[in-house]
Design goal:
mainly alpha; Arc Repressor Mutant, subunit A; Tetracycline Repressor, domain 2; 9 helices; about 0% strand; globular; DNA-binding
Length: about 220
């Protein structure tokens, strides 16, 4: 390839990197303001000002505040799907999902996705984001089913197993989150424990038989 033909590609690459950096800057500014001031009270004008750009620039990247939150949580999910793809090929699908969750959590705890990860709680807990949460849950299940299908070589469009597995996995996470919220805890390590407890119950719940719970400690 000649230098003349390579130059436009380099320019396009630079332009795309600048756009990606601006998108990340706007998203980070928005999420920080949402946590500091509340989602409802934060305006797109304030987000743009925090990122050092105009409100018009904000709308070049995001259609609304809701889009910022939705894209943030979907960015987090992309890492979960990547963790699933990296699991050993001989792991059964549900075991691979469970272990991918642990790998993903470790990355969330110490990596650059920490702020985006906090947006997941915002989506689940904010009344203003009920519609966003419904869209997110629907899309998340379908995207996870596709990721499971890619790993197993199964097409979710013709085989229901990836969709069933995705639904079971996400339902276990949802019940773990509910238990954590009900406990009044704010410890994220206990949240991970609640997730894993529910995931580890799935084989017993599915296969049975169920034994009556033992007496509560006195």
């Amino acid at each position: 390839m000649s230098a003349t033909s390579a130059e436009p590609e380099e320019q396009v690459g630079l332009r795309e990197r600048k756009k990606a950096r601006m998108r990340e800057s706007l998203m980070e500014s928005a999420l920080r303001l949402f946590h500091e001031n509340g989602y409802q009270r934060t305006t797109t004008e304030e987000i743009a000002a925090c990122a050092g750009v105009s409100q018009r620039t904000f709308f070049r990247y995001f259609g609304s505040k809701e889009d910022v939150v939705l894209e943030a949580v979907e960015d987090v999910d992309e890492h979960l799907f990547a963790s699933l793809a990296d699991r050993p090929a001989d792991e059964p699908p549900f075991t691979a999902l469970r272990n991918a969750m642990v790998d993903h959590w470790e990355y969330l705890r110490r990596g650059p996705l920490h702020l985006k990860g906090s947006a997941m709680g915002m989506v689940a807990d904010s009344p203003e984001l009920i519609e966003v949460n419904m869209r997110y849950c629907h899309r998340r299940q379908h995207r996870l089913a596709r990721a499971v299908g890619e790993r197993t070589g199964v097409d979710p469009a013709t085989d229901p197993r990836p969709g069933v597995l995705a639904a079971v996995f996400l339902s276990a996470l949802a019940t773990g989150h509910q238990a954590w919220c009900a406990s009044g805890s704010h410890d994220k390590e206990r949240l991970l424990g609640a997730f894993l407890d529910r995931l580890d119950l799935v084989p017993e719940v599915v296969d049975g038989p169920w034994s009556p719970p033992g007496p509560s400690p006195g």
